[in-house]
Structures are given as C-alpha cells and as structure tokens.
Write a structure and sequence with these properties.
DnaJ_subfamily_B/C; 16 strands; 3 domains
Length: 480
C-alpha cells in the first residue's frame, strides 16, 4: 500500500529516514521561492502537514490504519456479501489471525547527537519478534555514545521493546475487527468469532468516551458476536502476543548480563568504589614471630651493630644459692595467664608524652643512626587510621631495635632523613584497631661517586594488605 500526501508517495513500510528523504525532496520542489506553480504555497503546506503526521509514530499509526474497514462487522451474513481484502504482515506479507500494529524504537548516538527512530507497522507475531530483537540489538550497540540523551533514550527504547513494543489499543482493536470480517467472509466462522472477541477485548481497554469511533466499534463487535448461533463453540486462539515469549527472555537475559557485569566491575574488591577503611584487626589473631630477636630499647650510642654485646641470652652460672625446682613444682607455681583486655586506643605515646598534632617524631624518644644520608618515606595517604611507626635496625648477630619512632596521621606521610647505611625494616601499629604489622627487611646503601655520595631513598606505602606495595606480616606484641 502507498501513502499519498502532499504530492508524494512512500510505502507504508518505509522507515523514518525514507519518509524524511522523500518529503525533504518534495519540500524543495514545492517551496514557494523555487516553484512557479500558482498553488505552490498550498502544496508546500500540504507537504509539511504530511511530514508532521508521518513523523510522529502514533499519528502515523492512525494514518497507516485509516483504510482498515470495520463497518460491516455487524453480522456474518453481511460479511459474506462484501468480502474484504485481508490485512497482511508488512514484512512477510502473510495473512495471520492475530496481526497487530506495533511500534518499536531504536536509538543511536554520536558525542552530542542522539537520534531515536520508530520501527513500526502491522506485523505477524513472528516478524514482530525479529523486528523487536533487531531494534534492541541496534540500541545496545549504538545508543550510549552521546551525552546526555543517548543513555536516557536508549534505556527507554530497551524497556519499551522488552515489553513487546508500543501497541495502541484503539488502533489494534480495529485491526483484528477487520480480520474477523475477512474470516467470516471466507466462511471460517469459528476463527472469525474468536478474532472478534480478541478485538472486543482490545476495544474495552480504551477509556470510555475517549473517542466516538471506538465506542461505535464496540457496538459493532457486540452485534457481530451476538449474531453467531449461541450453541456454536468459540475456539481458543493461543495468544501469540503474550509477554512471556522468546524476545522477552532474550532481552531480559541481555539486560541481566549487562547489569551483572557492571556490578561485578564496580564492586570487586580492588575497585576504587569498593575500597573502604583499612582494617588490620585480623592481623592480631595470627601473629608470626620474626626470626630476628628484638628489643624495644636501643643500645647506648657507644655501641654499633657490629660490636654490640647481647647479654640477654647468656646463662646465669649456678651457685650455692640456686634453687632447682622439679617440673611438678614449676608447673604448680606457674601463674595462670589472665585474658587479654580489649584494645583501647592509647591517649599518650608509649613514653607518656602526647602524640604529635601532625606527622612527626615522638617527643622524648632519642633518634639513632643520624650520621647517614639515606631516607625513608612512609605514605599513609590511602588509609583512614593514624599509625605509630618505628624504623628498626636489624644488625647481624644482635637484637633488632628501633632507631626512629614517629606518628603519621590518616592520609598523611612522613620522611625519615639522615639514616646510615644498613639493614632495616618498618613496623607500625594502627592506632584505631591496635593491629601491628611489619615490612620485609631492606637495605639502605651509600656509595661514594665523583662529586658526592649516592644513597638510597626508600618509599613504603601503607595500604590494606591486599593492595600494598609489599607484603606485610603481622607482629606479636613483643616484636613491636
């Protein structure tokens, strides 16, 4: 069928782009500035009116079905006297008992440009499924590349297509009414009655008083159905337009997969949106002892790691006053270990002085090994908790001990300067949770070169354990 308006003709199955091209050509042809015909202005106005009608999906739907006749559905006998042409699918051109007028949408975007097109026509259910899936696939691929309307129009189109497209009830009541007339004229009375009842159900969905045409159609369908013998049996037609059909499940599956993928990437543990305040409290449940003996008290300045003497491991010589207890006596005298009290954030530093207001050394704690060049940067910028940090020297053949002790607030950092060459590690306590952690040992070196000394600048970033720049180990209380 051809639509003729304003002196131009386009097929009823023409796309929005075809209509726009055809009417743009006619608008140029009949523009009063170019056309010399005496009625050029009238023709130009007709072209614009036709484009405004066919450019709106619902107006075009009414225009496409304006030739659908329903006036002879008053009785089957009248239908047999005036056999109409059947309504055919606009894609496959087949006659079906349940054609519907459906409007699908597809959207494509490019940067700031977004276009929404209507794919519409009278379809059989099989062709409607294909058109629906094609429009949705097109939208999934091309709707998102324009801001801001691309995603908005794209989601609207996807959900409209998901529910079977837009099917105006007043228009779709006329389509099966016409088919009922055709089947009655063809002598298929059972099918004609079943289709007429579907048409009446659609007509009843239109609000009463919305338009006189639908009210007349309801009266005609009532009379048409009543004209059949009361004893005749109405066959039950399978509703091929129900919501739970293949396109619904295919599109729902795609939508679910996309939502699941977005949720996975947004909520995975290493995603920035998932990262929360670091919690080191679990480290206290499984402390592991370091192989290096440790003392929290540094040796006197006169001792260096090379000549420091450790007397703590030497045995006490036996004397006449030594009392040797039996194992049974020792066990009997061993005091019971009281339960560990819950952690409470300390108000003062371990030496009884106040914590620094900003990052800095603990007042009253001596600084050791200050005759070097190397530096250590402690970055606490990723964490929500304050930390108490110790740089620990690990001398060979002697106990490890702290050489610097300082405070770093949440989201802060601190640079430890003038450290002599040697082996060190960093140990710190999260003051919010009480958890103690330690880094692997590392070397600070100093090398004489022409013009100066090359030295090590070591950087340690304190993240959660999973995201740190090195693997931390939990510490026992006597290792800190």
């Amino acid at each position: 069928m051809l639509l003729k308006s304003g002196g131009t003709s386009v097929a009823s199955s023409a796309s929005a782009a075809d209509i726009k091209t055809a009417f743009r050509r006619k608008a140029m042809e009949y523009h009063p500035d170019r056309c010399k015909l005496p009625n050029a202005t009238t023709l130009f106005q007709l072209v614009n009116h036709a484009f405004s009608v066919l450019g709106d999906p619902e107006s075009r739907a009414r225009y496409d079905t304006s030739t659908v006749e329903t006036s002879d559905t008053a009785s089957p006998s009248a239908s047999r006297r005036a056999a109409p042409d059947p309504i055919r699918c606009s894609v496959c051109n087949k006659v079906s008992a349940q054609p519907r007028y459906v409007i699908f949408y597809r959207v494509y975007s490019f940067i700031v440009m977004t276009r929404r097109e209507a794919i519409q026509g009278i379809y059989c259910s099989t062709c409607a499924e294909k058109e629906c899936l094609k429009a949705t696939a097109f939208t999934w691929a091309l709707a998102w590349w324009g801001f801001p309307w691309g995603p908005i129009y794209g989601l609207q189109a996807i959900f409209t297509n998901l529910t079977g497209g837009k099917r105006p009830a007043d228009i779709n009541a006329r389509v099966p009414a016409h088919q009922a007339w055709y089947f009655a004229a063809a002598g298929q009375m059972d099918v004609a009655r079943a289709v007429a009842e579907q048409a009446l159900a659609l007509a009843l969905k239109v609000s009463p008083g919305k338009d006189d045409e639908t009210a007349r159609l309801r009266a005609q369908l009532d009379a048409f159905i009543a004209s059949f013998p009361s004893a005749s049996r109405t066959p039950q037609l399978k509703d091929t337009w129900a919501l739970g059909r293949r396109p619904f499940f295919v599109q729902t599956g795609i939508l679910t997969a996309v939502v699941a993928a977005v949720a996975f990437f947004a909520l995975r543990p290493d995603s920035p949106s998932f990262r929360t305040t670091p919690d080191y409290s679990y480290l206290q449940n499984s402390p592991s002892k370091s192989h290096q003996p440790y003392t929290p008290t540094p040796p006197p300045d006169s001792q260096s790691p090379a000549n420091a003497v450790d007397f703590s491991n030497q045995s006490t010589p036996a004397s006449s006053s030594t009392t040797i207890l039996s194992l049974q006596q020792a066990l009997a005298k061993k005091p019971s270990t009281p339960p560990k009290p819950p952690y409470v954030r300390p108000v003062l530093a371990p030496n009884g002085r106040s914590w620094p207001i900003t990052e800095g050394y603990i007042k009253g704690v001596p600084q050791k090994y200050t005759n070097g060049y190397s530096e250590i940067t402690i970055d606490n910028g990723q964490n929500e908790g304050d930390v108490f940090v110790k740089v620990v020297s690990i001398p060979q053949g002697a106990k490890a001990f702290p050489i610097r002790q300082f405070f770093v607030p949440a989201h802060g950092s601190f640079v430890v300067k003038k450290i002599r060459a040697g082996t060190y590690d960093v140990r710190y306590q999260d003051l919010d949770t009480g958890a103690k952690s330690g880094s692997p040992s590392f070397e600070l070196t100093e090398t004489s070169v022409p013009g100066g000394i090359e030295y090590t600048h070591y950087e340690l970033t304190l993240y959660t354990v999973a995201n740190g720049n090195m693997k931390m180990r939990p510490l026992a209380d006597d290792e800190f």
